Amino acid sequence: MKSTARNPAAVDSPLFTAFTEELEICARDLQEYLIDRRYLDRFRPDSMGEAVTLYVQSGGKRLRPAILLWSCGALGGDVRTALPAAAAVEVFHTWTLVHDDIIDRDLTRRGADTVHERFRRVAESRYSSVPTLDSVHYGTSVAILAGDAQHGWGISMMTELSREYGVDPAITLHLIEVLDNRVLNLLVEGEILDLQFARVPIERLDIETIEGMLWKKTGVLYRFCAEAGAMIGLGRPEEEHPQVRALAEFSSRCGIAFQLQDDILGVLGDPKRLGKPVGSDIREGKRTTVVRYAYTDATPAERELLGRTLGRSDAGEEEIAEVVEILTRRGGVEKTRRRAQQHIEEALPYLEELPPSRWRDLLRTWGEYMIERSL
User: Fold this and answer.
1) Whether the Cβ atoms of residue 323 and residue 305 lie closer than 8 Å to each other
2) What's the distance, CA 198 to chain centroid?
3) Which of 146, 223, 318, 351 is most buried, by the most CB atoms less than 10 A from its CB?
4) In angstroms, rounded to a whole number, what is the distance separating the alpha carbons of residues 222 and 216?
5) Which residues sit opposite 112 in a β-bridge?
6) Which of 2, 89, 28, 25 is nearest to 358 (CA)?
7) Helices 115-126 and 135-158, axial angle in degrees (round to 10)
8) Could you tell me whether strands 108-109 and 112-113 are parallel, antiparallel, or unpaired per DSSP bridges?
9) Are 238 and 263 in contact (CB under 8 A)?
């Protein structure tokens, strides 16, 4: 398929302005949907309610719900009928973040405490009279249980497509089956591979293997969002429909580009804008394409430094800065940036399968945004 990519939409262009406005509308509608008392009153005790809604209340980019809603519109559907599915995938995504933060031992998310860190602090302040309490274990336990509750919340919310919005039950059942079976298992596989790769010598992993892991961690849920919105818009659970497949392929490639850009921001991003510390991927020993590309062209001394620093949770700021300099100097950042651009260039032609519409224009700008974003 021949590329029809153009230069990314400038931030002051009408297309980008429309994109940001629609993304804000999506985020607002989603927030109103999610913080309804009919949901929030389910979670008891109060600490569980706080844990379950901590990330929901803090906002987020809402990129996955947006592609679901816009894919629905691109195939002629009423985007309002897809709102329960958009809310469901946001909550589904949120529980994976809660658990991922535990796995990665991250202490901040969106500029505030992660769930497990928040409740570690709660344990220290609220239960200080119990000297035998392990506050870290308490915080981790609350976060695990919160993620479990969010998982159930997301799946139950998907049923509202049919119960309240008139979507064909065959579509709803199909989406639940795919999300809680195929997508879930691929996400878990990607997480396990991420853990395992951190314990494998860098030179034994190639770019394609790393990207395959990234797709399972990130791209598969983006693909599902496009498929779900497309099938709701189409009115049939038809995965092989040409336009459904086109949107799935488009979002799948954009999902990889998103993660590649995320890995770049993990090295060069602004911690205040990202809402999380830069350098955590290095301390966790993440095998990103940034690392792999740089390692290939590094000198023996630089490889030795990378080998003894990556994966060291106690690495100091000066050591992290040295690694960042190598990753930049040896082309890891730039080659990863070009790789992300390549994925977007391969993704955009799939949109030509869709009829012209403002939804298609939004999807195109969404794809371009994936590699231009700074947070």
Assistant:
1) yes
2) 20
3) 146
4) 10
5) 109
6) 25
7) 130
8) antiparallel
9) no
Report the C-alpha gap between 353 and 1 in whole angstroms.
11
Residue among 174, 178, 222 nearest 67 (CA): 222
Residues 199/287, Cβ–Cβ less than 8 Å: no
Q: Give residue-wise pLDDT tens across range 259-304.
A: 999 999 988 877 776 666 778 899 999 999 999 999 999 999 999 9
Q: Are 291 and 305 in contact (CB under 8 A)?
A: no
Q: Which are the contacts of 119, defined by CB distance < 8 A and separation ≥ 6?
A: 47, 51, 138, 139, 142, 143
What is the C-alpha separation between 49 and 42, in angstroms, rounded? 8
- Phi–psi pair at 113, nearest 5 degrees: -65, 145
Q: Can you tell me the distance from the alpha carbon of 220 to that of 64, in angstroms, rounded to the nearest whole number?
A: 11
Domain ranges across the chain: 14-372
Distances from the Cα of 20 to the Cα of 11, 166, 234, 256, angstroms: 9, 29, 26, 21
Calpha distance 85→176 (Å, rounded) = 10
In the block, residue with structure tokens 């592609």: 67
**Rounded distance, CA 305 to CA 296, Å?**
14
Residue 75 pLDDT class (50, 70, 90 cuts): very high
3-class SS at 301? helix
Helix H, strand E, coil C: the string for 39-86 is HHCCCCCHHHHHHHHHHHHCCCCCHHHHHHHHHHHHCCCCHHHHHHHH
**Residue type present at position 349:** P
**Letter string b/e over residues 187-214, b meaning 16 or more CB atoms within 10 A of that residue's CB:** beebbebbeebeeeebeebeeeebbbbb
At residue 342, what are phi and psi to the nearest 5 degrees? -60, -40
**DSSP designation for 189:** H
**Domain 14-372 listed as CATH 1.10.3720.10:** no
| pTM score | 0.92
Query: Please, which residues have CB within 8 angstroms of residue 71's CB and are 6 or more apart in sequence?
Result: 225, 226, 227, 228, 229, 230, 233, 247, 251, 359, 363
